[in-house]
Amino acid sequence: MKEKKTEIAQEAETVRIRAGGGYDVRIGSGILPEAGAKAQEVLKADRIAVFTDSSVDRLYADTVEESFRRAGYETCRFVFTAGEASKNMKTVMEFIEFLSRHHLTRRDAVIALGGGVAGDMGGFAASIYLRGIDFIQIPTTLLAAVDSSVGGKTGINISSGKNLAGAFWQPSLVLYDTDTFGSLNDDLILDGTAEIVKTAAIRDADLFRLVDGNGIGEILTQTVKRCVEIKGAVVDADEKEGGLRRILNFGHTMAHAIEKASGYRISHGKAVACGMAMMTAASEAAGMTEKGTCEILCRTLEKKGFKLEPEFPPEQLCRLAGSDKKTFGDRIHLVRIDKIGRASVFDLELAGLEAFMRAGM
């Protein structure tokens, strides 16, 4: 049964991110029709280009584009085919050519409207067009709201794996309209829930208990705000992932391998849930994680609707993980939770990764 949003409407919440030049993340109901007015506070642009996918285009692009026109901007819109298969350099280059044809200059801006695919690609295109122009993230999925729209990671997939080409490019503003939650199907809600559980598991035991005991729709604004605060604090301390920021990758090494193995049939959130379970089982078996943590984590994930049995053998997943961007030399950075609410980064020889993972299975 699809989870419904049941929060009482309230004033928008704002979280300040200090990374880059600093920017606000605004979270609340009724934000989309006011997006253009909000943008005026941070943009000096004359023209804006809305970058969105074919699904979001039908739902929200008219509202957003009209809000920018009312605010005095010239607008244009680029729509790509929805789905992970579009997250590639071909789409980015087509968009860059589009920006050039519409005469966007260095003072103009990109509006990345949609989920993580739109945000990652729109931000990447903004980072390389004219050596960098402003962009605003307007996430319309729960996953993008709590994770990918914040922190400045942009990029695309290549044949070797997920997000292996990209740039750190911070947005000028992030606007999340909680009303968009109502248009999400069960799978999209699950994708966002996985990232919420991840954030709680690595940094906030109280949030973990709150999420475990409530439907996401019942605590939507509170949960999104807390996840953004946590990610913001981590990114502020380590913008370009030289140390602390790696904890945000909990579950992602195996998740990216699962996505790749499935030809991206398995969504990011479902892969992350499975990856978190696999990593916690392995680290607990190795004595790195407090006993009983894997049971707690898996019980919460299963309660939310995740299936945690991996479809692919560990040797295949570990082979694919060897191409992950978290490798260095013959070693790989991995993330474990020591217990619910606290995470650590550790290194492992790639040659020992399969044995480490099998021990937890």
Which structural category do the helix and sheet elements fall into?
A: alpha/beta
Distance between the termini: 31 Å
* Major sheet strand order: 1-2-9-6-5-3-4
Q: How would you characterize the largest beta sheet?
A: 7 strands, mixed
Q: Radius of gyration in whole Å, from Cα? A: 20 Å
Q: What percent of residues are in strands?
A: 15-25%
Q: What is the number of helices?
A: 13
Q: Report low-confidence residues grouped into runs of 5 or more.
A: 4-9
Name the helix and strand elements from N-terminus to C-terminus, one letter apiece: EEHEHEHEHEHEEEHHHHHHHEEEH
**Helix coverage percent of residues?**
40-55%
Average pLDDT across residues? 94
The tally of beta strands, per DSSP, is 12
Could you say which overall geometry the principal axes of the C-alpha atoms support?
A: globular
Notes on the structure:
The protein is of the alpha/beta class and 361 residues long. It contains 13 helices and twelve strands. The chain has a seven-stranded mixed β-sheet. Helix 3 packs across helix 4 (116-128), helix 6 (186-203) runs antiparallel to helix 11 and helix 9 (252-261) packs across helix 10 (268-285). The protein is globular and about 60 Å long. The model is unreliable at 4-9 (pLDDT under 50).
